[in-house]
Amino acid sequence: MSGVARHAVRLSGPADFDGWRNAARRLLTNAVAPERVVWLVGGEGDLFAGAHMLPPLAAGAAPTVPRAFPERAAAALCHRDPERFALLYRLLWRLSREPGLLDIASDADVARLARLEKAVRRDGHKMRAFVRFRRLAESDPPRHVAWFEPDHHIVERNAPFFVRRFTGMRWTILTPDASADWDGTRLTIGPGARREDAPCEDAAEALWQTYFTSIFNPARLKVKAMQAEMPKKYWRNLPEARLIPEMIRGAGRASDRMIEAMPSAPPAHHHSLQRRLWAAPADAAGRPSGSGEPGADATTLDALAHAAADCRRCPLWRDATQAVFGEGPGDARLVFVGEQPGDQEDIAGKPFVGPAGRLFDSVLEEAGIERRSVYVTNAVKHFKFTPRGKRRIHQKPNAGEVRACRWWLDKELGLVRPRLAVALGATAIQGLLGKALPVTRMRGRTVQRDDGLAVFLTIHPSYVLRLRDEAEKAAERARFLDDLRAVRAAAAA
Ligand code: URA
Predict the structure, then answer these.
(1) Hey, which CATH number is domain 288-492, 3.30.465.10, 3.40.470.10, 3.10.50.40, 1.20.1260.10?
(2) How far is the centre of ligand 1, averaged over its atoms, from the C-alpha of 378 (Å)?
(3) pLDDT digits (tens, 9 = 90+) for 134-158
(4) For ligand 1, is residue 351 a contact (CB within 6 Å)?
C-alpha cells in the first residue's frame, strides 16, 4: 500500500462506539476507502505516528444506511475480534454503494457481522444471569461487589440493565477489562480489576445455597444442557455452583425417592380391567339395561357391591378404574365412612389401603379397635382426579356426586345396621347427614339422623398427613386417637 495516504483513527477504548461512528462518518464523507484506514485503541500503534489525521466532516448529505445497521454495529463492536472496527467500516462503505447488502446472509462480511453480534448478545445474557453480588463486610451503607469474566467488551453495554434491576443498591461489577460502579445516582465505567478485589463470600451465601438446593429438581437433570447454558467457566463465581457436583451425584437417589413418593399412574392393565368391569351394556341414559336400578333388589352386601360395579349415577365412573365398595363384616357395630377411594384404592379395589389407610389402621389399633371387626366404606365410590403427566391428582367430590352416591351408602347402612357410624371428614358428614357441618368445631360430637342412626363426627386421617409441622402433626394424631377411643366407648355402651 506504499504511496497511498493512510489515516489512523485512535479510539478511546475497545468499545468506543461513539468514537468509531464519528470517525467513520468523516472518513466516508471524504471518500476514504476502507483499506486506507488503520484503527487503533488507546495508546497502541506508535508505528502509525506518521499517518494522516482524520479529515474533517465534508459538506454535503451524509450517506444513509439501513436502520438496523447502527444497532447491529454497536453490538458487534464490543467483540474482542481485533478486526471489528475495520470490518464495520468496510460494511458501512459497501452499504453506501449496495443498500441491500445486509440481506445477503452468504456475504462474508455480513456473515461475520452476524457472528460477532450473536456472540456479544450471548455474552450479555450470561452476564445478566451469572453476576452475583456479595456484600462488602461491614460496609455502611451496604455496598455490593461482583466479579465477572465476560468474553467480550460488554460491561458498559450491559451496565444499564443492572442499574434498572438494582437501582436502590450501591454496587460495583469488576471484570478484568472494565468495571461499572453505581452509587445510587450515577453510573461510572472505570478500569479493569483483579479477582482478589472482589469479596468471595458474604452472610447471605448459605441462605442462597439452601434455596438453590431446595429448588433443584433431580428428575429434570440434563447435565449437558445445563453445562451449555451455564458453562463451567462461570461456576467459580457462582455460590450455588459449588453444590452442583454433589447434586448431580445424588440426583439418581433423589429422583428415586421422588418417584416413590409420587401417586402412581394406573397400571397398564387399567383399561382392560375397566372393560371387563364395565361389561354390562348400558342404556342411552348411561344406566345398565335389564334389571332396572342396579342394586335396588340387593339383599346382601356382596350383591350390592357387585351391582355398584355398574353404577352410572354420576360421571365419575368413566375415568376411575373401578368402583371401590365398602369392606368388613355384615353385622359390624361400627361403620367408618371416608371421602372417596384414592389413587391406590382405585387400583386395589379396596378402601383405605393407601397412606391415609395406613395412618387410619395404626390409630385404630392404638384405640383398641380391630380393623377386621368394623365395616369401612366411603361417601363416594369412584376415585375423582385430574391427570397431570403420569400422576393422578386427587379432586374433592362435589355435592352432586356425594348426593348421587348417598344411595349406595344408605343401602350399605341399611344392610349392616351398625350401632354407630363414624364420619371421617367433611365429605363423609355430607354423605351421612345430607348436609354440611363444620368438622373442626363439631368433631367429637354425635349427631342423630332421622332414621335414628347415631353419627360420630371427626377428621379425615389425610388431614393429619398433610400437616408439615411435626409437633402439630403429633398433636393432631393424638386428638384423632382420643376421638377413636371415644368411638370405641360409644360402640361398646
Ligand atoms: N381416603 C378416603 O377417604 N378413602 C379411602 O378409601 C382412601 C383415602
Answers:
(1) 3.40.470.10
(2) 7
(3) 888 777 888 889 999 999 999 999 9
(4) yes
